[in-house]
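Marked as duplicate of an earlier ticket. Keeping the data here for the record.
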Amino acid sequence: MAETQKIHPATLVTNIKTCIPIILDYDGTQYNTWSNLFELHCRTNLVLDHIIPPVADGNEQASASSENAQWQRLDDIVRQWIYNTISTDLLNSIIDPDDKAIDAWNRLKNFFLNNKSTRALHLDAQFTNTKLEHFDGVKPYCTRLKTLADS
């Protein structure tokens, strides 16, 4: 009898935007929230190793061809998730046809976290210049301040 192949949970995700409703953009004020949601989604769908490599245990052996094909398919799915949850401008800056999901993930991470002092000054200026009169009420104003403070 032929062995039944299990369906991987990641292949069942049809619309990543329902799971990660944030669109990451150049502003980057949502990066921490976006990356936390993304890591959580990858963890629950058993593909976290596509963006955060596991620690090697020294006992790894060469995978069979079907396992390599499965890994590549899952990596492509994770890459699509990344690309579908960032703005078009950001996508155009990081996309590379030869990338793996971890390459795209690290490129975004470096973009938002490597220039911390510059980003901190920019966010501090935005926080300082955020005025209540520019919002329709206290809740949107406070939400904006919290987003800036978290970033």
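See parent ticket for discussion. The radius of gyration is 19 Å.
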